[in-house]
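Help wanted!
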Amino acid sequence: MRRINWLGLAFLSPALVMVTLFFLLPVVLTGFFAFTNMSTATGVMGGDYLLNTSTLRALADQGLPKETLAKLEAGGYRVDEAGLAALAAATSPATADELAQLHAGAEFSDRRDMERALKDLRANAIRNTRDRKAATELFKRSILNERFSEEAAFRAALSETGTRPELSDQITEAAFTGWVWTTDNVKLLFALPSTLRYAANTLLYVTLTLAFNVGFGLFLAITTFYLPKGQGALFRAIWFLPRILPPVLYVLMWRWFTWDTGFLSTVSGYLGMSPKNWMLDTSYHAWTAVVLINGFVGASMGMIIFSSAIRAIPTSMLHASEVDGASRWQQVRWIIVPQLAWPILFITCYQTLSLLTSFEYILLATDGGPGRSTEVWSLAAYHTALSNYGGNLEYGLGASFALVLVVIGIGASLIYFRLFNFKRLITKPLIEG
Amino acid sequence: MPAKNWPILLLLTVVTLPLLIMCGYSVIDAFTDTAPGSLVPTRFTLEHFRFLWEPVAEARGSIWVATANTFVFATTSALVVTMVSLTAGYALSRLNFPARGFFLAGLIVLHAFPTITLIIAIFLILQMLGLYDTLIGVIVVKTALELPLGIWIMKGFYDTVPWEIEMAGVQDGASRATVWWYLVLPQVQPGLMALILFSFLSGWSEYILPQVLAPGSDARVLSTYLSSLILDDTKADFNLFKAVGLFYATPVVVIYLLFQKHLMNIYGGGTKG
Amino acid sequence: MTNLRALFATTALVACGTAALAEDINITVWAGGSNDADSYRWEAIEIAADMLEREYALQGEELNITVEAKRDFGGWEEFKQAVTLAAEAGTAPTIVVTSHLDIAPWSQAGYIVPVEDYLDLDAWPLNDIYPNLMKIAAYDGVQWGLPQDAESRPFFFWKETLKGIGYSDADIDALPAKVASGEYTLQNVLVDAKKAVDMGLVEAGYGFYPRVSNGPDFAQFYQSFGGVLQDPETGKLVLDKAAMEEMYQFFVDAVAAGVTRKNHIGTEWSQWYNEVANGKAALWHGGTWHYARYTGQEGNADFFGTIQFSLIPAGNDKGHANTITQPLVYLLTDQQDDKVEEVAAQLLKIASEPRMNALHAIKSAHLGITKQQSNVELYSNNRWADEATERLLGTANAQPNHLQYGVFAETMWKGLEAAWAGVQTPAEAVAAVEAEMTAKLGDELIVR
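Answered by r_m:
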């Protein structure tokens, strides 16, 4: 029997709490959100019950009987006995009497007209605006534009309007302002022509950037390997900068480099070309920029891993090949690259996932433009959930975009476990063993 | 071989040129004025650094508040990540406890996870905890998202410590906790240092989390300060941007120059694509 | 309605002048899309706070109002994100200055409260605000906000270039009327722009120099070709495919003729302003507030001598010359303390007074919101405010306040971007737009 060391769980617990709360829980919640119609308009935390003209319009489309609609719509404000009594109680009987004299039995569809009626009071004027507003409410006989936080209260108010009970479920459902469960998001993902484009963009982005990362990382690792130590280290240090500089600043440098008034335009201006925005000129420019911006960052990872792998190659092998008269190219082709097969596979797997989900640099550089040509899936998720021209952020749809990435991420991880032989990673602890 | 090196050197210099130009002009333009359509600076000036003593525009916060926030944000998240990783990494590397394999596998999955796409859900949780739009909230989230990598790195460092050290300690009758504290920790000190630096830099650079989770002016950090400056369409003053950028990047560059070796070790397996 | 009595009781108490303790009220104002020139969006609230404190003091109530303003959000996107999430978290600013389009989703979500709950709309100065502007700040028959400013989005001509292609001074003076009557159309725009480019008066791509990012401006061109945004009968959004395609085609034609740059979208705003303010472009369109920018920061000393402005010309027989006004609105958010909402509403009322609004209108070159503003000398003596109000505001319409309008506008823009950049043909783009809108808007869309 292996001994179990509970210290292990104790040591792990702080990490577990944090990771669970801000990592696993969000994953689960994203899974739930993906199946809701949650948006700014529905709010995140439940909702109220509200009938307004928009709801009535929707209900009319659903085929609610005309007379019911008319009932819901009508009412408005009525100077009736009950209202006058309430007014008398709140202010004075004289006030109520004066209003009754002027407007008894009157009906107003508009709140403003009711307020005007109250303003007509001369002898018993209600001077304060707030008080007049409050008095107006005493005569309100419609539930239009009134927010009910409780369903029961809404239903009660609904039945007071004389709506047929069998219709109240339908009306209550339409009046609910909060989010509801739905599979529409998934359907939308398949129905929208734009999602296909985002998927294609993502594929292009990952493939190109990955190819650049591996290729250029390899190039840097090999070239710096052949340089004297100091020079090699210097170049590696420079190529490390893109990774270490804050993204906002790094992309700013690129913007300056490619902008209409920036470096490339100025230099091409010397050659007589008119200035242009080299980053956003066409979608080809944008793609080049996106791949290079990400690639410069990504290549340094390959550079470091490949460099240490190359240094691990026994120097005797390289010397032997030189004695045999092999050129450097042959050396690279037949000795170095074959030794790098595993590191290359590792970088490929690792960066596929991180590229799939990273959008920070694209957001800062092209923001998906021009013409959405560099809008990748993760950026689309971000845009859908967190930016909307009309102020209505679509959390639910955004979450379903994210969910696709989550599923791909988990799937890919499982494949990688097989590929890299997960068992090998878990060496057994020796002391309890 | 040196005789044959110049082609390589030339090739490398040419491909490195764009990067050198970008970095070089970031410094040059921050301190000089250049006429439009030219690349040759005409005069030296410190005017682009005026943001240090006055707000750049009305109703725009001071950079010092943002700097202080960034510093608190980066330091705190670095310390918490390191401390939590220190224990968790040890547990995963050395201790036998239930479901250890499961935790290890989970760690690797999380390590390469689309964190940022979870932001709406994260917002919701922060809000329930009352931490939305606070620096603490962003720190906690950043820390949690950084943890899987931190633990993974610390585990790697623990893995290299020889078992004999602990065996000897345990045979002398010390508890595992004592052995960890007195014997193992000193062995992983370089790793600890590297992880602190790494997480500090990562926090210092973070953009999207503070942008979305702490948009109020109280919790503004340098990355959001700079980006809102860039996004403001009234003036695309690249000299000013570069001066702010230089100010922002100084700690990064200093740390990088001093601790290059440590960092390269970690970034080799870093998170960024 | 249970606490009505309590309400009456408190006001009665206050009215009696019972000495009360000083009360601290904190008002936060967040203003989206605001530059330095727009500072009166929040400074007006600060001035109003001073007034209101005095008014309360005379009524025997000591009120200590502190106003805290914030405007540095990056862009509109970041601003809306921040307001939405803050409102969801219950930490929304008291007053928001934003686009009227946000009223629909934000009222539905319960983030904002109607100003009509607090203010007498029949009393001065609110009864002096142009009714069409008030309507824009209303949704579903409820007055949610108050217009903060008015503007409209004119078409601009660089006079010297026009003269270069053969216009006389009289022709140029007659141009606005010709545009309004539909005699001068977008087809003429293409012809004139092409002339200017061919004759070398402006560089290629600078003949017609449109806005560089999504905005209400492009809905104007949709209207120029007979497009309608909202069906007045049912309140549903309308996609007029023919108008949309012709609108896309217009921009594609402009690119093909070499008068507009294919990569125009995403041009830096600061560069754009500088170019149009100094005659690098022949024809372009913008907003009334551009006046402040052109004459101020960009250093155009003779606006009226160099630039002519008009409505956006009609595109074809079905459409007509038009302009869209997109007033920003003051909105009140739902707060824990009703007193804060009440005070904030009072502040909005004071800030809407003609003299106060004139400060903003003149500093930022927006148009006034009240009729009496023409009696404020600061405003009436300003040639731009005067002429622009007369030439543009009368026919201005607004985009609809509709829950899904954001989706509509974004999809329309995506289609335009794709056609403009040559990724899709106009017909393909419209087909994609139709598919996307039908899927997302469902019953709320009428396709024609």
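OP: Thanks! One thing I noticed: Residues 40-58 of chain C form the longest helix (19 residues).
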